[in-house]
Amino acid sequence: MAALGVVCVLLGAAAGPFASASSEEFWVSQSPAHLVSDRARFRRYLLYDVNPPEGFNLRRDVYIRMASLLKILMKSEEWVMVLPPWGRLYHWQSPDIHQVRIPWSDFFDLESLNKNIPVMEYEDFIAENGGPFIDQIYVLQSYAEGWKEGPWEEKVDERPCLDPPLYSQDKHEYYRGWFWGYEETRGLNVSCLSVQGSASVIAPMLLKNTPARNRSVMLDRAENLLHDHYGGKEYWDTRRSMVFARHLRAVGDEFRSKYLNSTNEADRIPDEEDWTKLKVELGSSLGGPYLAVHLRRKDFIWGHREDVPSLEGAVKKIRSLMKTHGLDKVFVATDAVRKEYEELKRLLPEMVRFEPTWEELELYKDGGVAIIDQWVCAHARFFIGTSVSTFSFRIHEEREILGLDPKTTYNRFCGDLERACEQPTHWKVVY
Ligand SMILES: Nc1nc2c(ncn2[C@@H]2O[C@H](COP(=O)(O)OP(=O)(O)OP(=O)(O)O)[C@@H](O)[C@H]2O)c(=O)[nH]1
Ligand SMILES: *[C@@H]1O[C@H](CO)[C@@H](O)[C@H](O)[C@H]1NC(C)=O
Ligand SMILES: *[C@@H]1O[C@H](CO)[C@@H](O)[C@H](O)[C@H]1NC(C)=O
Ligand SMILES: *[C@@H]1O[C@H](CO)[C@@H](O)[C@H](O)[C@H]1NC(C)=O
């Protein structure tokens, strides 16, 4: 039986060709078994994916939760995190641009990530594993009965799948699914786990499994696991390790200097590449001589939310902030659709925005452009964002890491008619 064959190959440290799949293009015929170090040979792989509608910035948060799980697993065994390729995100709508199977190195600095936990790209996993097979997939879900009265309890149990599974068996009894656009990937087994609690709740279950048969484990719908210690040292270690890719930082820096008269030296922003050595006194950084704004629109205005301003309201606030802080330049990051953006430009003609050429967009993709926007916002003397946008939250964190004064960071626009306009919470870095 085919499934058995795969198990044998994996047991044999991916050494030989795999008969029933040998005709298929994915098969790595030159198995690099002799190149694989002992450590690699015995380590186990943690893969994960997130509910498809979730955006880029929530996914960054799920990475932090998975990293904390990985740290727990590594206390008992050798594990490595396989980074889920980016793609098919709802908000990444630029036409004619290929936006699937994007490796993490397009957006983040892998060397920096690796200083926190061992990580590898999915394609490297395929090569090291000897093929695109995932031994065990757990689809995480809540409990059918919900959270009953009584004290909060952390638990995990194997349960029937509540939703129709997103994986279907092919004629070889392999499970096929989205797998980040890697159609050739197969799961050997899929089952559902009801979970309630933080990421660590699932660790005993993964450690109990026999490694030889469950070397690679994927947690799908990983957002169902919560943070172990939101805002604690471990949270911040992982967050700080999520340094943007060097080429995107370089584009952002060039833009700052060219259009906003902003350089690290003049802005008193530390020039440290290594996040493990970057520790700044809050308020010691000054930031560039501009106001930065994150105006989240699209679905935030379709819902007519009362905590989101009209464009007129936003521009009024922008003008007043520029005056108060003596800033004559304003950088705007926004997802506004063209028509609304033109209206904004009419109301605020002096605004500066990062507008990629088609070539640049193709190169950096929507995710890279969003990162450049976040980078420029993170370096401003004063920042104001949009209520409960994770995009704005990630900018807060970046500014906190850079050591800007919290007063210049935790600000948000208020809805035109909003009465109690509560401002964002200050989360201090724990080193
Ligand atoms: N370039 C750019 N893109 C933006 C901006 N605001 C939103 N976006 C895009 O819209 C997406 C939605 O925002 P995210 O924060 O990532 O999505 P989310 O996790 O659903 O979070 P919310 O903002 O809370 O909805 C982002 O990933 C970007 O692709 C912006 O200011 N600049
Ligand atoms: C699939 O995984 C479930 C849950 O771990 C397990 O009960 C079941 O025996 C597995 N099936 C196979 C064929 O390995
Ligand atoms: C993985 O481990 C579980 C639990 O120990 C087991 O039921 C399952 O059969 C294993 N999966 C494979 C593919 O062997
Ligand atoms: C740029 O900033 C420097 C101070 O860092 C200032 O001396 C200079 O006048 C500024 N240039 C412009 C064009 O605003």
From TrEMBL:
<dbReference type="Pfam" id="PF10250">
    <property type="entry name" value="O-FucT"/>
</dbReference>
<feature type="signal peptide">
    <location>
        <begin position="1"/>
        <end position="21"/>
    </location>
</feature>
<dbReference type="GO" id="GO:1903334">
    <property type="term" value="P:positive regulation of protein folding"/>
</dbReference>
<dbReference type="GO" id="GO:0005789">
    <property type="term" value="C:endoplasmic reticulum membrane"/>
</dbReference>
<dbReference type="GO" id="GO:0005794">
    <property type="term" value="C:Golgi apparatus"/>
</dbReference>
<keyword id="KW-1015">Disulfide bond</keyword>
<keyword id="KW-0328">Glycosyltransferase</keyword>
<keyword id="KW-0333">Golgi apparatus</keyword>
<dbReference type="InterPro" id="IPR019378">
    <property type="entry name" value="GDP-Fuc_O-FucTrfase"/>
</dbReference>
<dbReference type="GO" id="GO:0010468">
    <property type="term" value="P:regulation of gene expression"/>
</dbReference>
<dbReference type="InterPro" id="IPR045130">
    <property type="entry name" value="OFUT2-like"/>
</dbReference>
<dbReference type="GO" id="GO:0006004">
    <property type="term" value="P:fucose metabolic process"/>
</dbReference>
<comment type="similarity">
    <text>Belongs to the glycosyltransferase 68 family.</text>
</comment>
<dbReference type="GO" id="GO:0001707">
    <property type="term" value="P:mesoderm formation"/>
</dbReference>
<keyword id="KW-0256">Endoplasmic reticulum</keyword>
<keyword id="KW-0808">Transferase</keyword>
<keyword id="KW-0325">Glycoprotein</keyword>
<comment type="function">
    <text>Catalyzes the reaction that attaches fucose through an O-glycosidic linkage to a conserved serine or threonine residue in the consensus sequence C1-X-X-S/T-C2 of thrombospondin type I repeats (TSRs) where C1 and C2 are the first and second cysteines of the repeat, respectively. O-fucosylates members of several protein families including the ADAMTS, the thrombospondin (TSP) and spondin families. Required for the proper secretion of ADAMTS family members such as ADAMTSL1 and ADAMTS13.</text>
</comment>
<keyword id="KW-0294">Fucose metabolism</keyword>
<dbReference type="GO" id="GO:0051046">
    <property type="term" value="P:regulation of secretion"/>
</dbReference>
<dbReference type="GO" id="GO:0010717">
    <property type="term" value="P:regulation of epithelial to mesenchymal transition"/>
</dbReference>
<keyword id="KW-0119">Carbohydrate metabolism</keyword>
<keyword id="KW-0732">Signal</keyword>
<protein>
    <recommendedName>
        <fullName>GDP-fucose protein O-fucosyltransferase 2</fullName>
        <ecNumber>2.4.1.221</ecNumber>
    </recommendedName>
</protein>
<dbReference type="GO" id="GO:0046922">
    <property type="term" value="F:peptide-O-fucosyltransferase activity"/>
</dbReference>
<comment type="pathway">
    <text>Protein modification; protein glycosylation.</text>
</comment>
